[in-house]
Write a structure and sequence with these properties.
By secondary structure, the chain is an alpha+beta fold. It has 3 domains: about 300 residues, no CATH class; about 110 residues, no CATH class; about 60 residues, Arc Repressor Mutant, subunit A. The chain is built from 15 helices and 17 strands. A hairpin with a 4-residue loop joins strand 14 and strand 15. The N and C termini lie far apart (about 80 Å). About 40% of the residues are buried. The structure holds zinc ion and manganese (II) ion. Manganese (II) ion (MN) binds next to loops. The site of zinc ion has 8 residues, from loops.
């Protein structure tokens, strides 16, 4: 039986975070009452003229820069003609043969893979090649009711970036890693919130299989309607299996579009593509070609340090593990929090541990994000220093942390209010040690007779008498010295 090789290419549509729409001044925000953000341009009235959104062009160029694309010095907009109720002017303004970004790639780092697939990655360090990124306008949103349909034009004409990959992805896990990594980079650059569940990032997958040894790709089948990255993984895995079973039964696969039903975990046939549509593309006569060189210096200055670059720097600069660095770098706000807290910290590794083990779970439990975190980066650094300097125990540190999170007070203030500061003053501790030794002559005698474990009993008594405030290490050292 031949082995089959899957080939996957992804087309990702991303909503840009601009204030206004692509070719008119209507707000590009979501959640408003249907058809309230409209004007003659985005409703497609005859004679209404489009005006390009410069911010959308710059954001797309920034996305391209972050993904290592070549930015075309000159790009243009074309009309893609088709007839459908969500597009009343009967064409979509998009980019045909001169897109703004060409080439580039999405790096698949180890931790972008699903957790259960991070071991045994087939191609570590792989970069999935991109064909192009172009800019277009979104169409209106149709909603189908029982007996009729409704169309909301608030979404019509909002800027949409289309990122097309080469058929360079070989497994459902790579598709997952591609989307995770792409999403991280887009959010870093502030070009999109890229939330799949909100439809800000929409993904179509082209999947085919071919027997090992066969050069040409198998019949391409497109899957639509996935609303999470893990759903993409499930849909692609299902589709690969389905196609292999069909091939082994000797069935002929037909180029078609399938929908993914996440509830039952199956793709279902939607329509057959008879032939590629003739969209009769032609340059939009209402829009001039764009000279991108005019704004590229401004865009270059906005390129942030990318997740992968941050990860490597955290390992080199702060000595944290590769895993910790990747968790910390996964979100720009979190990375900036760590950067601030770790700068100047004596043990940046402890700061990383507190963020990953305590802060992130506290945020999740409180349904908060790092952006509305009640503890500032500086305040966390202060807490970690108090523990590392032996001023409070790590157990006390947990209590202080909980109060910091609940009240927003600083670590120093809480330690002071609760009288938690450990006594490291040797004079005071020595006096306590002597008292305990005088009160427990039996234990002292046993220690001197060679039963060294007796020191722990004495130590416990000293700590108890100090109400837990004596520094345990200092107590230990002093007792050993006094008993010698
Ligand atoms: Zn409008
Ligand atoms: Mn498109």
């Amino acid at each position: 039986m031949p082995r089959y090789i899957p080939t996957i290419g992804l087309e990702v549509h991303v909503q840009l975070k601009t204030r206004s729409k692509m070719f008119c001044g209507c707000p590009a925000e979501y959640g408003a009452a249907p058809n309230t953000h409209t004007c003659p341009v985005c409703l497609g009235y005859p004679g209404a003229l489009p005006v390009m959104n410069g911010e959308a062009l710059k954001m797309t160029a920034l996305a391209g820069l972050m993904l290592g694309c070549d930015i075309a010095p000159k790009c243009k907009f074309d009309r893609k003609n088709y007839f459908y109720p969500d597009m009343p002017k009967n064409y979509q303004i998009t980019q045909f043969d001169l897109p703004i970004c060409i080439g580039g790639g999405v790096p698949l780092h180890e931790f972008a893979y699903p957790k259960d697939a991070q071991k045994g990655i087939a191609h570590p360090g792989k970069v999935v090649k991109l064909t192009r990124i172009h800019l277009e306008e979104d169409v209106a949103k149709s909603t189908h009711f029982d007996t009729n349909s409704g169309i909301d034009f608030n979404r019509a004409g909002t800027p949409l970036m289309e990122i097309v990959s080469e058929p360079d992805i070989e497994s459902p896990e790579e598709a997952f890693a591609y989307l995770t990594s792409l999403q991280q980079i887009l959010i870093y650059g502030g070009v999109s919130d890229a939330d799949m569940e909100k439809g800000q990032l929409r993904c179509d997958c082209n999947v085919s299989v071919r027997p090992e040894g066969q050069k040409e790709l198998g019949v391409k089948i497109e899957i639509k309607n996935m609303n999470s990255i893990s759903a993409v993984r499930r849909a692609v895995a299902y589709e690969i299996k389905r196609q292999i079973v069909a091939c082994e039964r000797g069935e002929t696969l037909v180029q078609s579009t399938r929908g993914w039903d996440d509830a039952i975990g199956q793709t279902r046939h939607q329509r057959t593509k008879e032939s590629t549509h003739d969209y009769r593309y032609f340059p939009d006569p209402d829009l001039l070609p764009v000279d991108t060189t005019v704004f590229m210096p401004e865009v270059r200055a906005k390129r942030p340090e990318l997740p992968g670059e941050k990860r490597d720097r955290f390992v080199a600069e702060f000595g944290v593990t590769n895993y910790d660095a990747s968790v910390l770098a996964s979100e720009r706000a979190l990375a900036e929090f760590f950067d601030t807290a770790a700068k100047g910290a004596r043990k940046p590794k402890s700061v990383a541990n507190w963020i990953i083990n305590d802060l992130l779970s506290a945020l999740t439990a409180a349904e908060k994000t790092i952006s509305d975190c009640p503890i500032s980066a500086h305040s966390l650094d202060e807490l970690v220093s108090l523990i590392d300097d032996g001023k409070i125990s790590s157990k006390q540190g947990k209590e202080v942390f909980a109060e910091m999170f609940g009240t927003g007070k600083s670590a120093a203030q809480i330690v002071k209010e609760r009288g938690l500061e450990q006594v490291s003053d040797t004079g005071a501790i020595e006096a306590l040690c002597k008292q305990v030794m005088d009160a427990n002559p039996k234990a002292v005698a046993e220690y001197k007779a060679g039963k060294l474990g007796s020191i722990n009993f004495l130590k416990g008594q000293v700590l108890k008498n100090s109400q837990g405030r004596a520094n345990p290490q200092v107590v230990n050292d002093l007792l050993a010295k006094l008993l010698a």
